[in-house]
Amino acid sequence: MINFAPPRIDEKTIDAVSETLRSGWITTGPKTKLLEKKISEYCGGSQTLCLNSATAGLELALRWFGVGPGDEVIVPAYTYAATANVVIHCGATPVLVDVNQDDFCISASSIERAITAKTKVIMPVDFGGLPCDYDTIVTIVETAKNVFHPANEHQKKLGRILILSDAAHSLGAIYKGKNAGMFADISVFSFHAVKNLTTAEGGAMLFNLPEPFNNAAIYKELSITSLHGQTKDAMAKMQKGNWKYDIVEAGFKCNMTDLAATIGLVELERYKDDTLPKRKAIVDAYHSFFSVYEWAELPISKDAERESSYHLFPLRIKNITEEQRDAIIQKIFDRDVAVNVHFIPVPMMSFYRNMGYKITDYPVTYDNFSREISLPVYYDLTMDEVAIVTKAVKDSVTEVLK
Predict the structure, then answer these.
(1) What pLDDT band is residue 238 in, cutting at 50, 70 and 90?
(2) Residue of 304, 360, 374, 368 whose CA lies nearest to 332
(3) How many angstroms separate the CA atoms of 241 and 261, rounded?
(4) What's the pLDDT tens digit per position in 369-402?
(5) pLDDT at position 142, please?
(6) Among residues 261, 210, 257, which one has the least CA distance to residue 38?
(7) Which has the closest alpha carbon to 197: 367, 356, 27, 13?
(8) Model confidence pLDDT, tens digit, residues 84-93
(9) Are 238 and 212 in contact (CB under 8 A)?
(10) Closest CA to 137 of 162, 118, 166
(11) Gyration radius from the chain CA atoms
C-alpha cells in the first residue's frame, strides 16, 4: 500500500529525541526556545511562539485582538473546520465566503462583499501551501478602515481589520519575494504529523504587526496566556530561588514541549535544501504526467508572484460529479494507493449546516471540492511509487468515465 502522507522519521530524528529524553528536559524548555528562534530566522520575522497546535495559535490571536460575541470573522468556506471552529470558540460569527476557481484561495471580491461594521478579522488560508493574494487583501482592509469599529486598545492601535493568516500548509512558500509568515499581521503554521515539517502535533505563531505594536512584547504576553496565565515558565522557575510566580489571567494550556520541538529542529535544519526540493520534484512529476490528459485540471504550484510549499497536489477531474469522484477514489484505493480530499467544505459539516450555512451559497467551493483528489506527496515517496500512483489514478479515471 502506498500511504498518503506518513511523517519523515529516520535515525537522525530518533537520535535527537533520545538525546532530549536523556537530558531530563521534556516539556517547554531550551529546545522549544531554539525552535522559535530558528523559525524566525528562516521566515525573516522577529518573534515566533511555538504551541501545541496551529488551532491554538489561531484562537490565541483572535482572543488577543479581543474578538468575541457580536464580532464577525471572514473565513473561506473551503478550509479545514479548525479555521472556523476557533471563531466559534471566541463566541464570534464565522462569515464564510467563496474561493477562487483556479487556486482554491479566498476570493478577494467575496471578502469585499462580506465586510461589515462587525468585521474584526480576515483569515486567509494558504490552500495546499500556495499563498493567497495578500497585497489585494491589504488594499481591501485599508479601503474598509472607514467601516471598522474598534472595541478595545489593540483594535484602536491597529485601526483596521486584522489579517490573520491560516498558513498551516505554507511554511517555505514565497509571495512576491517574501517568505510565508511575513504576508500578514499574524501568521500561524501547523506542524501536525502530515505537514511538510512536523513536530508530531504542534504549531507556531509568527508576529508581524506594524508599529506602534511591539512584537516582542506580544510574544511575551501570549507566552503567558498559553501557560495558564502563569508569569514564569518552567525554565525561569528552575533558576535558583526563582520559584515564585503569579497567575495574571485565566489562560490556556497550549505550550509546545521540548520533545516536539526536537523533532521540529531536525526537520527545519534540512527543510529548505532537502525537504522542499524533494516535494517539488514529486509535484513536478505529477504535473508532467497529467498535463497530457484532457480530463486533468492541474493545481497552481508556481506563478509569477507565488511559489507553493508543495504541501498538496489537489488534482481535479473535469466535468464529473461528486459521486463519480468518490467512485474514482474507491478504485484508486482498490489499487493499493491512498489518496485524500482537501477538504470537505465547512458548510457541508453537520455542525455548520445546523447553524444555517448552505453549501449552495458557495458554488466555486463546491465545484472544486466535488472534483478534487489529493495525491500522495511526502519525503520518502520514490519516483517508482509516483509512477504507480499516476497509473492508478489514470486507470481509475478511465474506468469510471468510460
Answers:
(1) confident
(2) 374
(3) 27
(4) 999 999 999 999 999 999 999 999 999 999 999 9
(5) 98
(6) 261
(7) 13
(8) 999 999 999 9
(9) no
(10) 162
(11) 22
Residue 262 has pLDDT above 90, yes or no: yes
The sign of the CA dihedral 367, 373, 379, 384 is negative
Measured distance CA(351)–CA(349) in Å, rounded: 6
Q: How far apart are CA 265 and CA 318, in angstroms?
A: 41
pTM for this structure? Answer: 0.97
Amino acid 233: pLDDT: 83
Q: Distance between CA 324 and CA 370 in Å, rounded? A: 9
> What does the CA dihedral 262, 263, 269, 271 come to, rounded to 10 degrees?
-150
> What CATH number labels 271-401?
3.90.1150.10
Degrees to nearest 5, angle at CA 63 with 54 and 162: 85
State the distance between the two ends of the chain, measured CA to CA, in whole angstroms: 26
Residue 220, phi then psi, degrees to nearest 5: -65, -40
Please give the single-letter amino acid code of residue 385.
E
Q: Which CATH architecture has domain 11-269?
A: 3-Layer(aba) Sandwich (3.40)
Fill in the amino acid letter for 304: A
Q: Is the dihedral of CA 41, 42, 46, 51 positive or negative?
A: negative
Q: Is the dihedral of CA 164, 93, 217, 248 positive or negative?
A: negative
Place of cell 463546491: 366
Please state the domain extents for the chain. Answer: 11-269, 271-401
Neighbours of 24 (CB within 10 A): 7
For residue 235, what pLDDT band results from cuts at 50, 70 and 90?
Answer: confident
Query: How many other β-carbons are positioned within 10 Å of the β-carbon of residue 152?
Result: 12
